[in-house]
Amino acid sequence: MTSHSAPRTRGAKLTTRRAKETDAWAIKDLIDRYVASGTLLPRTLDFIKDYAHEFIVAVDRDKVIGSVHLDEYAPSLAELRSLAVDPEYQGRGVGRLLVQATEKLATARGYHTLFAVSNDEEFFKRFGFEKRHIPELDLERSEVSRFKGVHAKDLHPSSP
Ligand SMILES: CC(C)(COP(=O)(O)OP(=O)(O)OC[C@H]1O[C@@H](n2cnc3c(N)ncnc32)[C@H](O)[C@@H]1OP(=O)(O)O)[C@@H](O)C(=O)NCCC(=O)NCCS
Prior knowledge:
Layout lengths: L13 E5 L5 H9 L12 H6 L4 E6 L2 E12 L2 E9 L8 H15 L4 E6 L2 H5 L4 E2 L17 E6 L6
Parallel strand pairs: 4-5
Antiparallel strand pairs: 1-2, 2-3, 3-4, 5-7, 6-7
Coenzyme A (COA) binds next to β4, α3, β5 and α4.
C-alpha cells in the first residue's frame, strides 16, 4: 500500500503504513488509552497480532503514534474501528491520514461501504460519513456500541 504523508510538524515526519505483528504492543498501548472512557473497545495483544494485516499505523519515523483497524463485517461491508491517535500528536492531521488510508485499503479490498460506530459525528462528517442505519448491525451490537451512532460512507473504486 502506498504510504500517505502529512506535512512536517515540529520536526516530525508523519506517515501511515500497514501494521506488522511487531507493532502490536504499540497499537495496544494506543487503544488502551481510550478504553476506560468507553471511547474504544479493548483489544488483546493476541487479537492485534493475529489481525495485524488489518491494522494501519501512523508513524513518526519509527514511532507508532496512531492506529486503526479495518474490520470486515460482511463481504461488501467493513468497519473502521479502534481509531486512536497519541494525545501528543492530536490536531496534526494524523487522524485524517488514518481515515484516508483506511478508505483506500477498504476500496482496494472491494468493500462497498465503510462504517464507524462512534459518538464523534462531527469528526466522521468531515470525511463524508453520514449517520445511517445498517440493518446488518442490529443483531450484534455490543453494550458499548449500541448507544453510539453509526456513520457510513459508500466507497467507489476510483476514490483516492
Ligand atoms: C478523534 C481522533 C482520532 C482525531 O485525531 P487527530 O489526529 O487529532 O485528528 P486530525 O488532526 O487529523 O483532524 C482532522 C480534522 O478533524 C477535526 N477533528 C479532530 N478531532 C475532532 C473531534 N473530536 N471532533 C470533531 N472534529 C475533530 C480537526 O479539526 C481536523 O479538521 P480540519 O481538517 O478542518 O482542520 C483523536 O482525537 C483520538 O484518537 N481520539 C480518541 C479516540 C477516538 O475518539 N477515536 C474515534 C472513535 S472510533
